[in-house]
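Entry 14. Structure prediction run on the chain below.
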Amino acid sequence: MDEVKGLIQQLASKDESERRGAAISLREQGDQEAILALVQRLSDPSRGVREAVIEALIKLRGRKTVKELIPLLWESDVRLRNMAIEILKEVGRDGVDLLLSLLKDKDGDVRIFTSDILGYMGEEVATEGLIELLNDPVANVRNQAIVSLGQLKDKKAISALLKALEKGDEWTKFAAIEALSKLGAEEIVDPLINYLQDENELIRKVSLEALGKMGHPKAIPYLLRALKEADQGMKKGIISNLMENYADHLNSSLKAPERELLLNELFENLDEDDLIFNFRVIEVVGRLQDRRAVAPLIKLLENSNGLMKIATCKGLGFIGEAEALQYLSPLTEVPDEDLRLAAREAVERIRGNGKG
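Output returned:
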């Protein structure tokens, strides 16, 4: 105890290194008695001291830490206030009831800061209080509450978020779509599909991105329709979302015209500067198991190298057509081990399907 008191006194030293050393020691040896002194040193002129104090407060945690940090949410010094917010995001669970009460504070900025902290913490106990803020008279408070509800991913917020989406202004709609996409519930899909026809281009784009992230099979036809009409920049984003979130659904969900459209778009949007993207494209082409992809894949096999050649071997193996064997077989003896193994695996897969 005496040692802790000595370290607390050392926090007030004129020597920067002594103050920093005291904060570092209190991180390991301190107790709740040190909290107030550490919070007071968040305003230290030395960055090194401030960083050591932040680490100590996060390590010591506790309800007292939350209680002593909360007054800094009204602080006019932006740096000091932001430090308090970042620490509260890490330790706020130790006094979540204290934070919840701030959602009703008369200061709109404090309501925003608190919503941000609670959303980051992911505490579902905050859902009800954040839903109430969707009716706040301050637009920025409402929008932050929407963002935080998305972070909580509590499905109890779906109805309130859909209402905000329906009645809100442009930026409220933007935030609500982002939040709803994180909840991922089936009842969200139809409203997002409807917003693909919105007169506002930004809302259409955000709705499309949200559907892409959700991975719900119902959205696939709409994503493909958008893919056909999108500009070059949007095409790559839609393709990336299809590969990332819908790869397991594509083979069973697509009708023949949709399959043909997707194959054409996949090949047309290969990017010579993005090998990882190309690798995924070829993987998805293979999973579609459409023999119409064999000829372009063989052409790609002959004109590519490195990862692309390996990916193309895998794609041809997934499709499983015997006509690919004459192009794959010579690659089973090449010096490059990764390419050789990919070619052998593809050949074995095709022959295992009873072809060749």
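The chain has a mean pLDDT of 89.
Filed with the rest of this week's runs.
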